[in-house]
Structures are given as C-alpha cells and as structure tokens.
Design a protein that fits this description.
UraD-like; two-stranded parallel ribbon; about 60% helix
Length: about 170
C-alpha cells in the first residue's frame, strides 16, 4: 500500500513502521528510528533520515543488516519486495544451469566475505548481475562491506519511491 509524505508524516510510529519498515530488509528498526525525524519534506528527505540511522549503527548492526538479505536466485523464503525485485530481473525463472551458477557464486561469495552478495537488482539483468558477481569476488572484505551498504541504500531508495506517492 502506498502513502503520501503528508500521510507518513501524520502517522503514529507503529503505523509508520508498518508502512515503510520493510524498506530495509528485515530491519524495521531503521524506520522506527527515522520516524522521530519527521516531518519529511519529500521521499529524498525520508531516505536520508533512514540512511542517517544506518550511518550511526555499530559495525555489528550494519553486518546484521547486510546478512538480512537473501541470496540472489535462491528459492528460500524472502521479503515480498525481494521476491518482486528478483522476479523483475528474471531470477525467479532461472534455467537449471543458471540456478547452479548463482548457487555456486552465492556460496563462494559468502565463504569469502561472510555475508550475501547484494546488488540493486532493479537496475540489472541476469547477465549484469553475474558479471558483477565475478568482478566483486576479487574485492577485499572492506570494499565489499562498503559496496553492500551502498547497494542497500539504493535498494531502499527504490523501495521508498515505489511506496510513497507524489504529493
């Protein structure tokens, strides 16, 4: 269900969290904290408030946020937004060979970095995701943690844009 910025600004905290709490995968606490920064002038201000919450999280909390994301192309249970995003890139219709490749890459990535590969799927195709996997597997853990958080911020922005109706 979509809401306007005006409606979001008028919501009680629990309503607000129900409306935008899923923007950050399995981490509604970000919306709960951002609520106190109302009123938001627009989606960009709301997104920035949420980014600010993430920026003051401990390293362990940021790692938990990263680890809350599902493997790409997985058949595991995931948030509805993730299901839709992955379907939009065709990750719900993988051939057996593609599924095996995604599974192998997911396992290699998690073994190296300790968290799932994260990419703003809405901006990619299956091919570009696989290319990014191959490239990013050569990065250091520090580079990948930073990249994962950057991708999470992009995902959150895309999700908020879909959830918040223009004024």
């Amino acid at each position: 269900m979509t809401s306007s910025i005006t409606q979001l600004n008028q919501m009680h905290q629990d309503e607000f969290v129900a409306a935008v709490g899923a923007v950050f995968e399995a981490t509604p606490a970000i919306a709960r904290e951002a609520w106190s920064q109302r009123p938001f002038t627009d989606v960009a201000a709301l997104h920035q408030a949420m980014v600010d919450v993430v920026s003051v999280m401990t390293q362990a909390e940021r790692l938990a946020l990263i680890q809350a994301h599902p493997d790409l192309g997985s058949k595991a249970k995931m948030a509805e937004a993730s299901v839709q995003e992955q379907a939009g890139a065709g990750l719900d219709r993988l051939t057996p060979e593609e599924y095996d490749r995604f599974h192998t890459l997911n396992q290699s990535y998690k073994a190296k970095f300790g968290f799932p590969f994260i990419i703003a799927v809405k901006k990619h195709t299956k091919a570009s995701i696989l290319d990014a996997f191959d490239q990013r597997l050569h990065n250091t853990s520090e580079v990948e943690a930073t990249q994962a958080l950057s991708e999470i911020m992009q995902i959150a922005q895309l999700r908020l844009t879909a959830l918040v109706t223009p004024a």
